[in-house]
Each structure stands twice: as C-alpha cells, then as structure tokens.
Design goal:
heterodimer; A: alpha/beta; 14 helices; 12 strands; B: 5-stranded mixed barrel; 3-stranded antiparallel β-sheet; 10 strands
Amino acid sequence: MRDVSIIGLGSTQFGELSAPIADLGIEAIHRSLESTDASRDDIDALYLGNFVSGILTGQSNLAPLITDDLGLTGIPAMTTESACASSGIAFRQGYQAVASGLHDAVIVAGVEKMTAADTPTFTRALGAAGDQTERSAGLTFPGFYGLVMDRYMHEHGASREEIAAVAVKNRANGIKNPRSMFDEELTASAVADSRLVADPLRLYDCCPPSDGAAAVILTASDLATEFTDTPIDVIGGAHTTGRKAAWRYPDVTGFEATRKAARQAYEQAGISPADLDVVELHDCFTPAELCDAEDLGLFEKGDAARGTAAGETEVDGRVAINPSGGLLSKGHPVGATGVGQIFEAARQLRGEHENQVEEAEYALTHNLGGSGVVCTVTVLSEGSA
Amino acid sequence: MTSFPLQQCDSCAGVFGHPVSRCRLCGSETFEILSVGNRGEVYASTTVRVPDTDFVGEEPFVVAVIDLTATVDQHVDRQPSAEPVRVTARIRGSADVRAGDPVAFVERAEDIFWFEPV
C-alpha cells in the first residue's frame, strides 16, 4: 500500500445557501483544484458523499452529474451514502483507491442541501437512517440523542451547565471561522433557556440543518510535491460499524464503532490520543461531543463534561476539540460534514486556520452516522515534503 | 395483565424483543412466544417535541428504552446470556418517566410497544 497525502482543499460557506446542490459541490471542487497545481487531466476519479438529496431536493446520482459538469466526463464517479458519515466514507474509498495504486489522484467531496425543507420534512428524511424498530415509535435523531443525554446525566452526574459548555465553546470557535453558519455569541444560560426539542435536549444542544460542500484532492505521497508545497499526510484511518438502535446498546453513552475505529487509526498512525493537537469530532448534539471525546480516548469515561467545562478542549487547552465550530456552530450539511472536518483539520496542520491551534502537528477527524452505526476516523499530520 | 410477547428462536434460542420474521443469529423462521410477564424498567427516556411528518400532531410524546424485568436463557451476539431484554417503546400519555422507573407493558399496536408507569 502507498502512503497518501492531501494536496488540495476547497469548501463553500456552510449555512443557508441559495445555490442548487450540484453547484455547491462544483464550487467546493473548483476551489480544491485552484488550491493545487493539479489539473483536471490529473484526476482519475471522484468520490462524493451525499445523504438525503434524493429525498430533500429530488436530485440523486450527483457524482456522475457533477463529473460531467466539471469537464471530467469519462472518469469513474461514485456517490457514497451512509447517513451523516457519507463523505467520511467517500474519503476512505478515495484513500483506498490511491493507497492501493488503483488511482494516482482523486477528488473526494461531500455535499448537502437541507435548509429549503421544513423541520418535520428534514427530520423524517434524516430519520430514514434510523432502524425501523425505533422509527415506528416516533423516535427522531434528536430523540435518540435525548436518550443518550438522559442516560449520560444519570450515569455520570453531568450537570446541565457542564453539557451546555460544549455548545458555548463551539459557538465561540465558530465565530472565528468565516465558513461557520453562526456568528453570534452563545451563553450557557441561553442554552439552558432555549426550547426543548427532545428532553433533555434543547434547541442549542442541537446542530442546525445546513447547506454546504467541501472537497479535498488526494494523491500518492511520493507524487504530492509535484502538486503542492504543503501536502498533508493521511497517516491513519478506519471505517467501522456499530449498533443500529438505542435498544441494541449495552451502554448508550458511548459508541463502539468510534472506539474500534479510533484504535485502528491510532495503531496505523503510530500515535496515542495524547499526541493529538486538533480534533474535529461529530458533535451533532452536545452529548455526542462528550461521548465521542471519551470514545476517542481523550477523556476517561464520564469525565468529558467536567473537562469541557474546565476549558480543557478549548483552542488553547489540553486538546482543541472542534476549533472550526463543529457541527453545532459551523453547521451540519450531513453529506458534506466528513470532508468538511478534514478540510478544517488540514488547514490547522498547514498553520493557516482562522482559529489556529498553535504548533498543530497531529489532527484527528471523526465522522459518525445514524445511531452510531457507522463511523470513520482519519488521522492527519504535517506533510513530509 | 398482558404479557410481553418475547420471541425465542426454536433452533438457536436467540431471543428478540422487537419482532423478527427470521432469526438474526441462525436464519431460522420458527419461533416460540415466551410469556415473561409485563414488568420493565426505564433505561433512558426522552420526550419528542419536534416530530417528523409521520407523527405531527402527536407531540409531545415519550419514547423510552426499557429493560424487561424478566430474564430468560438466550443467546445475544451468539454468546449465551441472561441479560435483560431491551426494547424501544412509547410511554402512554406524556408521563415524565426517568431512568430506573418501573413500567408495565400494555399492548403492541401498529408496530409500537406501549408501556405505562407503574
């Protein structure tokens, strides 16, 4: 297997956008191509993550359509769908294609457009990734994480204020990120006073529906310096599966798909959680960040709420979690999120992020889908060029 | 009292709270229905206040993960086990149930298990 590096980065703004979904994908891919010396002729394939465009916009089959629009007609192009991990999996597919030698350079992108739909409609669309045993009872994804938060507070004694610290921190980070959906400060009392969505989850415990796209270009590491002076190396990664529903978990305050993916990724990268400087993890809801941080080995079980409230995960803390603003503030265009996280982490390692973590050397991204039933983890480091 | 209708595979003894037409462990299509009483305990609960299109007008409603109190010899993930059987269900009315609260099975209607506080 060959080593793989990121040589191009592109993203749209995340938020409420007017452009059609294909145009968002094209914008992000154009930007990724403009950020590198690679030309269209160098691109061997496109891997595109997308989850709900068929349901919400009536447009599916996006990868080949965008390929033709981009003048890349003829190359293989595939859309990957696995709920909110759709583009994390696109990245794994692209990585494997380059690492195996099947392709020398590929574009990996993710795109989603959600804000045109009303709340019950996109709630149902996202719920399609849940198991029928729980959908039939009316359980939504906010409801699933309401169960997680209820049990987390019961098991670990975390307070409302400690859990709100996740939303407050990520909003403060997002304000510094020009791609973030929100730009107004959030306080713990505003979180605690916001309306209930799925008890005990409140509005500001929840990520917003969002539009957006992101793209990266991958190539073999020994070819990377032909295209850029600032490659980012992909030094570890995994794609795993877990439990399909809340009732399937022995303990719903953590996700075994994350734990397994993290173990595999750390082993491949040859690092431990203590080596990480930047983590972009899947904070779709405030309790998710706590569970994910513990599953990734950044905290002991049950300690993440206290540690977050103590500032350990701020940009200048022990480990910076979601300096981009995360899903809670930057936004969660579901099919774009996984590649969007990699885009943000790579910019940190290049030292060019708007909310820069000082001397960032290692970064991890974590993209979780459905009820934690699917997960990808990616570990990045400064390029060796 | 309505006993919870637990399915046990005739072939491998796998136990299923949520109904299945084919055993998830061995593929068998024949099951016995076990009578295990109607009592359970709330493992976690939430009140859904923003439903999807299929449930608009029913909100707020309570969804809970429930451990059935009775245990049976079974196979879970292909390992012998006597762990409680866990199901996701609705709580009748909009009762504010908490983790650890006792509940009783009422009925299964339209693919939904219904419990009520005891």
